[in-house]
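Workshop exercise sheet. Pairs work together: one partner reads the sequence aloud, the other fills in the structure field after running the prediction. Swap roles for the next sheet.
Pair: D.N. / O.F.
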Amino acid sequence: MQVLETYKPFEIQELELTDWKQRPVKNNFFELVLVKEGEGTQCINYNHYPYSKGSIFLLPPLKCHSFDIQTPSQFVFLKFTDSIFKNTNRFAIDRNEWFKESSYILSNYNQLPGDIIKNDIDRQHLERLIAMILQESRNYGDDSISLIVSLMMSVLEILIRNIKKGSFNEVLQQNTDERISKMLTYINEHIDKPELLKIENLATIFSISPTYVSEYFRKQVNIPLREYIIKAKLKLVEIRLLNSNFTLTEIADDLGFTDVSHLTKIFKKYTGKSIREFKIEGEYILLKRTVCSV
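Structure field:
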């Protein structure tokens, strides 16, 4: 086993295994897994999916996962950590933009098994990017920081592109209506812009009568539109509370809550816990942990 670390915007592990050994469950943000050699089966939340050389998986935090190894396998684990958002002075990045993209991945990928990459070109892109990150990490120095962060941003962009193309959302897997698929994607992409999520705007964009938008959404998704939007926002609140140094004022402003009081009231209503209790316990509620018996 070889563990390579930079100044903690991420951690890299290269593992060659013949038997899977359970790793710590709580990841800081999420992990990308590249299979360089070997064959077997991935298990995540008791769902199974075969893997082979070139497979690329996403492992969200606080979730059960394991690999049933059939032939000796070589894995690269690229773990995105929270320190990138807590040490922004060290990195030439836009913290809000970085966090927005990372949170999009975490809140919209529903932890089902399977290769996250849907075309060969993106797979080749990711393999090259990971190889470059590995090389820079081995030769780590101050001159590598900005390049590594830029490479990681490119990895995020490719992940987001494939999540948007795939059927990772459970609602979309059970629904063949293309319009609701586009509407959900639109809502999640603009969750921090309340003016774009108003009934009138959604009606115009998706060619639905304003009086029918809410009914249509509820029929398709089985949850009221307003509740869906609130819970989508609160998932991002949970992510920011556990993985960043954003203040409550910044979180409330960024996600369209009236003020901190409004945020704390809504958070308690939908999670059953105060923000203080949530931070002390340190585990997601709306992005729930699934306990693994393995």
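Discussion prompt: The first helix runs from residue 83 to 86. What would you look at next?
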